[in-house]
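[recover] target loaded
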Protein backbone atom coordinates (compact mmCIF):
# COMPACT_ATOMS: atom_id res chain seq x y z
CA UNK A 1 0.00 0.00 0.00
CA UNK A 2 1.35 3.43 -0.98
CA UNK A 3 1.99 5.92 1.85
CA UNK A 4 -0.59 8.72 2.08
CA UNK A 5 0.19 12.02 0.41
CA UNK A 6 1.06 15.14 2.37
CA UNK A 7 -2.17 16.75 1.17
CA UNK A 8 -4.29 13.81 2.34
CA UNK A 9 -2.64 13.89 5.76
CA UNK A 10 -3.31 17.63 6.09
CA UNK A 11 -7.02 17.06 5.46
CA UNK A 12 -7.02 14.25 8.02
CA UNK A 13 -5.30 16.41 10.64
CA UNK A 14 -7.76 19.25 10.13
CA UNK A 15 -10.67 16.83 10.34
CA UNK A 16 -9.44 15.03 13.44
CA UNK A 17 -7.83 17.83 15.43
CA UNK A 18 -7.66 21.36 14.03
CA UNK A 19 -11.44 21.89 13.89
CA UNK A 20 -11.88 20.95 17.55
CA UNK A 21 -9.10 23.45 18.41
CA UNK A 22 -10.99 26.30 16.75
CA UNK A 23 -10.20 25.67 13.09
CA UNK A 24 -6.80 27.42 12.96
CA UNK A 25 -3.26 26.07 13.35
CA UNK A 26 0.16 27.70 13.13
CA UNK A 27 2.23 26.49 10.20
CA UNK A 28 5.10 25.60 12.54
CA UNK A 29 2.83 23.31 14.60
CA UNK A 30 1.32 21.70 11.51
CA UNK A 31 4.84 20.96 10.27
CA UNK A 32 5.66 19.23 13.60
CA UNK A 33 2.54 17.05 13.32
CA UNK A 34 3.32 16.13 9.73
CA UNK A 35 6.96 15.39 10.53
CA UNK A 36 5.80 12.83 13.14
CA UNK A 37 3.85 11.20 10.28
CA UNK A 38 6.95 10.96 8.11
CA UNK A 39 6.56 14.14 6.03
CA UNK A 40 9.74 16.22 5.74
CA UNK A 41 9.31 19.90 6.76
CA UNK A 42 10.00 21.21 3.25
CA UNK A 43 7.43 18.84 1.74
CA UNK A 44 4.93 19.84 4.43
CA UNK A 45 5.32 23.55 3.70
CA UNK A 46 5.06 22.90 -0.04
CA UNK A 47 1.79 21.00 0.45
CA UNK A 48 0.39 23.81 2.62
CA UNK A 49 1.33 26.39 -0.02
CA UNK A 50 -0.29 24.30 -2.74
CA UNK A 51 -3.54 24.03 -0.76
CA UNK A 52 -3.45 27.77 -0.12
CA UNK A 53 -3.10 28.51 -3.84
CA UNK A 54 -6.19 26.41 -4.59
CA UNK A 55 -8.24 28.09 -1.86
CA UNK A 56 -8.54 24.95 0.26
CA UNK A 57 -6.54 26.63 3.04
CA UNK A 58 -6.83 30.32 3.94
CA UNK A 59 -3.84 32.18 5.44
CA UNK A 60 -4.79 33.86 8.71
CA UNK A 61 -1.92 35.38 10.80
CA UNK A 62 -2.57 35.22 14.52
CA UNK A 63 -0.48 36.42 17.43
CA UNK A 64 2.49 37.08 15.20
CA UNK A 65 2.38 33.54 13.78
CA UNK A 66 1.62 32.40 10.24
CA UNK A 67 -1.26 29.96 10.20
CA UNK A 68 -4.16 28.61 8.19
CA UNK A 69 -7.87 27.89 8.40
CA UNK A 70 -9.89 25.69 6.08
CA UNK A 71 -11.42 27.32 3.03
CA UNK A 72 -15.15 26.97 2.46
CA UNK A 73 -14.79 24.17 -0.09
CA UNK A 74 -12.39 22.24 2.15
CA UNK A 75 -14.83 22.50 5.07
CA UNK A 76 -17.56 21.01 2.90
CA UNK A 77 -15.27 18.14 1.85
CA UNK A 78 -14.35 17.33 5.46
CA UNK A 79 -17.96 17.59 6.70
CA UNK A 80 -19.03 15.14 4.01
CA UNK A 81 -16.13 12.95 5.12
CA UNK A 82 -17.47 12.98 8.69
CA UNK A 83 -20.75 11.52 7.47
CA UNK A 84 -19.08 8.85 5.39
CA UNK A 85 -15.90 7.92 7.26
CA UNK A 86 -17.28 7.61 10.77
CA UNK A 87 -20.69 6.16 9.92
CA UNK A 88 -19.94 3.24 7.62
CA UNK A 89 -23.02 2.21 5.71
CA UNK A 90 -25.00 -0.83 6.74
CA UNK A 91 -25.68 -3.20 3.85
CA UNK A 92 -28.49 -1.87 1.67
CA UNK A 93 -31.69 -3.85 1.28
CA UNK A 94 -31.77 -5.61 -2.10
CA UNK A 95 -35.54 -5.07 -2.29
CA UNK A 96 -35.03 -1.29 -2.31
CA UNK A 97 -33.47 -1.53 -5.75
CA UNK A 98 -30.83 0.58 -7.42
CA UNK A 99 -30.11 4.01 -8.81
CA UNK A 100 -28.76 4.21 -12.36
CA UNK A 101 -26.88 7.18 -13.76
CA UNK A 102 -26.50 7.28 -17.54
CA UNK A 103 -23.79 9.82 -18.26
CA UNK A 104 -22.32 11.28 -21.42
CA UNK A 105 -19.83 14.14 -21.62
CA UNK A 106 -18.48 15.32 -25.00
CA UNK A 107 -14.94 14.27 -25.85
CA UNK A 108 -13.80 17.90 -26.00
CA UNK A 109 -14.76 18.36 -22.32
CA UNK A 110 -12.38 15.86 -20.81
CA UNK A 111 -12.00 17.78 -17.55
CA UNK A 112 -15.75 17.60 -16.94
CA UNK A 113 -15.79 13.94 -17.93
CA UNK A 114 -13.10 13.24 -15.36
CA UNK A 115 -15.01 15.29 -12.76
CA UNK A 116 -18.18 13.29 -13.36
CA UNK A 117 -16.38 9.93 -13.15
CA UNK A 118 -14.59 11.00 -9.98
CA UNK A 119 -17.76 12.28 -8.33
CA UNK A 120 -19.75 9.13 -9.10
CA UNK A 121 -16.88 6.96 -7.91
CA UNK A 122 -16.68 8.81 -4.59
CA UNK A 123 -20.42 8.42 -4.14
CA UNK A 124 -19.88 4.66 -4.31
CA UNK A 125 -21.16 4.01 -7.84
CA UNK A 126 -19.86 1.07 -9.79
CA UNK A 127 -19.38 1.33 -13.53
CA UNK A 128 -21.12 -1.07 -15.92
CA UNK A 129 -19.43 0.40 -18.99
CA UNK A 130 -20.77 2.69 -21.69
CA UNK A 131 -21.42 5.56 -19.29
CA UNK A 132 -23.81 3.52 -17.11
CA UNK A 133 -23.26 3.71 -13.35
CA UNK A 134 -24.98 1.69 -10.63
CA UNK A 135 -25.40 2.13 -6.87
CA UNK A 136 -27.85 1.08 -4.14
CA UNK A 137 -31.05 3.15 -4.31
CA UNK A 138 -30.32 5.01 -1.07
CA UNK A 139 -27.47 6.92 -2.80
CA UNK A 140 -30.00 8.51 -5.17
CA UNK A 141 -30.54 11.85 -3.40
CA UNK A 142 -26.83 12.41 -2.80
CA UNK A 143 -26.12 11.68 -6.45
CA UNK A 144 -28.71 14.18 -7.70
CA UNK A 145 -27.47 16.82 -5.26
CA UNK A 146 -23.82 16.31 -6.26
CA UNK A 147 -24.52 16.43 -9.99
CA UNK A 148 -26.48 19.67 -9.52
CA UNK A 149 -23.79 21.20 -7.32
CA UNK A 150 -21.13 20.48 -9.95
CA UNK A 151 -23.36 21.72 -12.81
CA UNK A 152 -23.32 18.32 -14.48
CA UNK A 153 -27.10 17.89 -14.97
CA UNK A 154 -26.80 18.40 -18.72
CA UNK A 155 -24.55 15.34 -18.96
CA UNK A 156 -26.45 12.79 -16.88
CA UNK A 157 -29.84 11.14 -16.42
CA UNK A 158 -30.79 9.46 -13.14
CA UNK A 159 -33.16 6.48 -12.87
CA UNK A 160 -34.56 4.34 -10.07
CA UNK A 161 -34.29 0.67 -11.09
CA UNK A 162 -34.88 -2.97 -10.13
CA UNK A 163 -33.23 -6.01 -11.68
CA UNK A 164 -36.12 -7.89 -13.30
CA UNK A 165 -34.76 -10.64 -15.53
CA UNK A 166 -31.87 -12.20 -17.46
CA UNK A 167 -28.59 -12.82 -15.77
CA UNK A 168 -27.62 -12.76 -12.12
CA UNK A 169 -27.52 -9.56 -10.06
CA UNK A 170 -24.46 -10.86 -8.21
CA UNK A 171 -22.55 -11.16 -11.49
CA UNK A 172 -23.63 -7.64 -12.42
CA UNK A 173 -22.33 -6.31 -9.10
CA UNK A 174 -19.00 -8.11 -9.55
CA UNK A 175 -18.71 -6.48 -12.96
CA UNK A 176 -19.37 -3.00 -11.59
CA UNK A 177 -17.28 -3.16 -8.41
CA UNK A 178 -13.85 -4.62 -7.73
CA UNK A 179 -15.05 -6.72 -4.79
CA UNK A 180 -11.82 -8.72 -4.59
CA UNK A 181 -9.77 -5.53 -4.39
CA UNK A 182 -12.10 -4.09 -1.76
CA UNK A 183 -11.89 -7.24 0.32
CA UNK A 184 -8.09 -7.11 0.21
CA UNK A 185 -8.24 -3.52 1.48
CA UNK A 186 -10.50 -4.63 4.33
CA UNK A 187 -8.08 -7.44 5.17
CA UNK A 188 -5.19 -4.94 5.27
CA UNK A 189 -7.22 -2.62 7.52
CA UNK A 190 -7.96 -5.49 9.90
CA UNK A 191 -4.25 -6.29 10.08
CA UNK A 192 -3.39 -2.65 10.83
CA UNK A 193 -6.05 -2.35 13.53
CA UNK A 194 -4.90 -5.60 15.17
CA UNK A 195 -1.30 -4.36 15.17
CA UNK A 196 -2.00 -0.97 16.72
CA UNK A 197 -4.32 -2.44 19.34
CA UNK A 198 -1.69 -5.00 20.30
CA UNK A 199 0.96 -2.31 20.72
CA UNK A 200 -1.18 0.39 22.33
CA UNK A 201 -0.52 -0.54 25.97
CA UNK A 202 3.21 0.16 25.82
CA UNK A 203 3.23 3.14 23.44
CA UNK A 204 3.60 6.83 24.26
CA UNK A 205 1.12 9.47 23.08
CA UNK A 206 3.22 10.50 20.08
CA UNK A 207 3.31 6.93 18.80
CA UNK A 208 -0.42 6.56 19.35
CA UNK A 209 -1.04 9.84 17.49
CA UNK A 210 0.85 8.40 14.52
CA UNK A 211 -0.99 5.07 14.69
CA UNK A 212 -4.38 6.77 15.04
CA UNK A 213 -3.82 9.18 12.15
CA UNK A 214 -2.53 6.52 9.76
CA UNK A 215 -5.33 4.14 10.73
CA UNK A 216 -7.95 6.77 9.95
CA UNK A 217 -6.10 7.60 6.74
CA UNK A 218 -6.14 3.93 5.70
CA UNK A 219 -9.84 3.61 6.48
CA UNK A 220 -11.09 6.89 5.02
CA UNK A 221 -11.32 5.81 1.37
CA UNK A 222 -13.18 2.57 2.07
CA UNK A 223 -16.64 4.02 2.87
CA UNK A 224 -16.45 5.89 -0.44
CA UNK A 225 -15.48 2.85 -2.49
CA UNK A 226 -18.01 0.58 -0.76
CA UNK A 227 -21.55 2.02 -0.80
CA UNK A 228 -22.87 -0.72 1.49
CA UNK A 229 -23.91 -3.27 -1.11
CA UNK A 230 -26.74 -5.68 -0.19
CA UNK A 231 -25.48 -8.72 1.72
CA UNK A 232 -27.17 -11.01 -0.80
CA UNK A 233 -24.76 -9.95 -3.57
CA UNK A 234 -21.55 -10.08 -1.54
CA UNK A 235 -19.15 -13.04 -1.72
CA UNK A 236 -18.87 -15.49 1.21
CA UNK A 237 -16.47 -14.33 3.92
CA UNK A 238 -16.83 -10.63 3.05
CA UNK A 239 -14.77 -8.69 5.60
CA UNK A 240 -16.40 -5.28 5.36
CA UNK A 241 -18.45 -5.45 8.56
CA UNK A 242 -15.59 -6.94 10.59
CA UNK A 243 -13.21 -4.24 9.35
CA UNK A 244 -15.67 -1.45 10.23
CA UNK A 245 -16.11 -2.82 13.76
CA UNK A 246 -12.36 -3.25 14.33
CA UNK A 247 -11.63 0.22 12.95
CA UNK A 248 -14.16 1.76 15.35
CA UNK A 249 -12.64 -0.14 18.28
CA UNK A 250 -9.06 0.87 17.46
CA UNK A 251 -9.91 4.49 16.62
CA UNK A 252 -11.75 4.86 19.92
CA UNK A 253 -8.82 3.36 21.86
CA UNK A 254 -6.23 5.68 20.27
CA UNK A 255 -8.19 8.92 20.00
CA UNK A 256 -7.58 10.19 23.55
CA UNK A 257 -3.78 9.77 23.53
CA UNK A 258 -3.61 11.22 20.00
CA UNK A 259 -5.51 14.32 21.12
CA UNK A 260 -3.26 14.74 24.17
CA UNK A 261 -0.13 14.79 22.03
CA UNK A 262 -1.61 17.26 19.53
CA UNK A 263 -2.70 19.53 22.39
CA UNK A 264 0.85 19.55 23.74
CA UNK A 265 2.31 20.36 20.32
CA UNK A 266 0.01 23.37 19.83
CA UNK A 267 0.29 24.50 23.47
CA UNK A 268 -3.29 23.80 24.50
CA UNK A 269 -4.04 22.85 28.10
CA UNK A 270 -7.08 20.61 28.33
CA UNK A 271 -8.40 17.90 30.68
CA UNK A 272 -7.28 15.25 28.19
CA UNK A 273 -3.78 16.76 28.11
CA UNK A 274 -3.46 16.78 31.88
CA UNK A 275 -4.44 13.13 32.15
CA UNK A 276 -1.63 11.95 29.86
CA UNK A 277 1.29 14.23 30.55
CA UNK A 278 3.70 11.29 30.59
CA UNK A 279 3.05 10.37 26.92
Amino acid sequence: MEPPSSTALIYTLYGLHVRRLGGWIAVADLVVLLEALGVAPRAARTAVSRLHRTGMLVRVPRGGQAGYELGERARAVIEEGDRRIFAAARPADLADGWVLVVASVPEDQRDRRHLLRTQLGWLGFGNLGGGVWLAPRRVQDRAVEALRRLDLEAHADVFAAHHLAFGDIGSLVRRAWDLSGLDRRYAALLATADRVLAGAAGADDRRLFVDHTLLVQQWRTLPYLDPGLPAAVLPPGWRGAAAAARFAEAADRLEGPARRWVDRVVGVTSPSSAEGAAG
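[recover] notes: The two ends are 29 Å apart (CA to CA).
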